[in-house]
Amino acid sequence: MSFSLYSVSGRDFIGRHKIIEELVKELASKNRIGFSLSGIRRIGKTSILKETKRILEKKGITVIYISVWSIVPLTVDEFTKIMNRATISEFQKKLPKKFKFEQLLATGAKAITTFLQNLKLSSNVAQDLEVSVSYVRKESDDVEDAIKRSFSLIEDLSEMTGTKSILIIDEFPSLADMTYGTKNQKIGTQIIQLLRTLFEDFKHTKLVVSGSFRDTLQNLVAKERAPFYKQLLLRQIPPFNEDEFEEFLKHYLPELKFQDNTKAQLYKISSGVPYNLQLIGKEIQHMELKKIDKKILDKVVCSVLKKEGDYSFKEFVSSLSPSEIKVLKGLAKSPGLAPIEISRQEFVDENSVNACLNTLEKKAIIEKIKRGRYRFTDNMFACWLDQNSL
Ligand SMILES: Nc1ncnc2c1ncn2[C@@H]1O[C@H](COP(=O)(O)OP(=O)(O)OP(=O)(O)O)[C@@H](O)[C@H]1O
Ligand SMILES: [Mg+2]
User: Within a domain: residue 27?
Assistant: First the structure.
């Protein structure tokens, strides 16, 4: 069986039946409803989006998937290029004549109108392309119009081809960092506002966004003053439940025998995070294990953390404050420790401990079990913190 650290879809995609069913049903319906998916890092958001795309495409719906992280540098120029390229390529089969976005860019400013005419596109589509291309070629500096046309291209192509389409924007909160022009002026929040207004009027296109920074995503979609307030259905992606965990084992490690309650321990240490299961599974395969007990599982986890821990967590930790790290280390060392005890153990004053617990919960690194008691949402991270001196 082949393990993967990339997003998965199709045969290797495990579980998530309810959310996939809901997404597919709503997005394929006539309702004008979009979604916002949130969930901690590596919980499987992108995989859910890609699996949904795969199923919707079988129903003849055009799905354009874009990850904001793939836009480098995160400028309007690059964004427009990537959006248009993805849109044209997804609509390719439905267009009268095949062409690529690069061909448009390579066509001289004077020839472009004739070029577009020859493609037999609707006048709206031709205009969308003309306007956004001229911005990318720096023949125009109307940045808002360029973005507007880039989004409208999806709607207008849908109308022209008589199809429905879905725009998926993965890592959506990062859009807020987008810049434009030679001085790198910020334009992110304006774009998000614009996106909202456009989608309000779109009749053929629906929007799905996703992100792992729960707080930022909430500011964009869930708060009363947020641009997308009440426009998108919010869905949080949880860890694998026990059935999904069982399904994962059956598919990826069908031969492995568990001794005593090692299976339950594996579920616990992985926190049901699919990425952790892929990493641990890969190591079990690498060690050619046929059976596993508690001691061997500890060894496997240790080895995974040694190989992948730094790569997985170091950069992430660098985004946290020193007090947050201390609080996390305290919790990692003694799970379930009360704030006052963390304060004593880590020499951080109690108010700061509480403030940190609060921000860490907002970032979904820890979750509250009951008043004053927290646990890690990713036990592998806790393990790594406990084993490493930072
Ligand atoms: N349903 C699933 N079945 C099997 N493996 C999965 C599933 N969902 C995710 N994975 C695995 O988990 C890892 C993370 O998946 P994915 O990239 O979809 O998560 P993500 O939430 O988008 O992560 P990130 O926060 O890095 O964007 C990958 O190794 C992927 O193969
Ligand atoms: Mg992702």
Answer: yes
Pocket (CB within 6 angstroms of ligand 1): 4-8, 12-16, 39, 41-47, 212, 274-275, 278
With a threshold of 0.90, does the pTM exceed it? yes
Asked whether residue 162 is assigned to any structural domain, the reply reads: yes
* Predicted pLDDT of residue 1: 72
- Quick: pLDDT tens for 22-69: 999 999 999 989 999 999 999 999 999 999 999 999 999 999 999 999
Could you tell which of 8, 52, 312 is best to mutate to test the pocket of ligand 1, judged by most ligand atoms within 8 Å of the CB?
A: 8
Q: For residue 367, which of 334, 319, 335, 321 has the smallest C-alpha distance? A: 335
Whether residue 4 is contained in a domain is answered as: no
**Chosen domain end from 220, 236, 252:** 236
Which residues have their alpha-adjacent CB atom under 5 A from ion ligand 2? 46
Range of the domain at 121: 10-236
Are 355 and 217 found together in one domain? no
Number of domains, the chain: 3
With residues binned 3-state (H G I as helix, E B as strand, rest as coil), the percentages for the chain, rounded to 5, are 55, 10, 30
Please report the pLDDT score of residue 108 as a whole number: 82
DSSP type of residue 249? H
Task: Tell how far the Cα of 210 is from the centroid of ligand 2, in angstroms.
Answer: 8
Q: What separation in Å is there between the alpha carbon of 142 and the centre of ligand 1?
A: 38
**Residue 366 in contact with residue 377, Cβ under 8 Å?**
yes
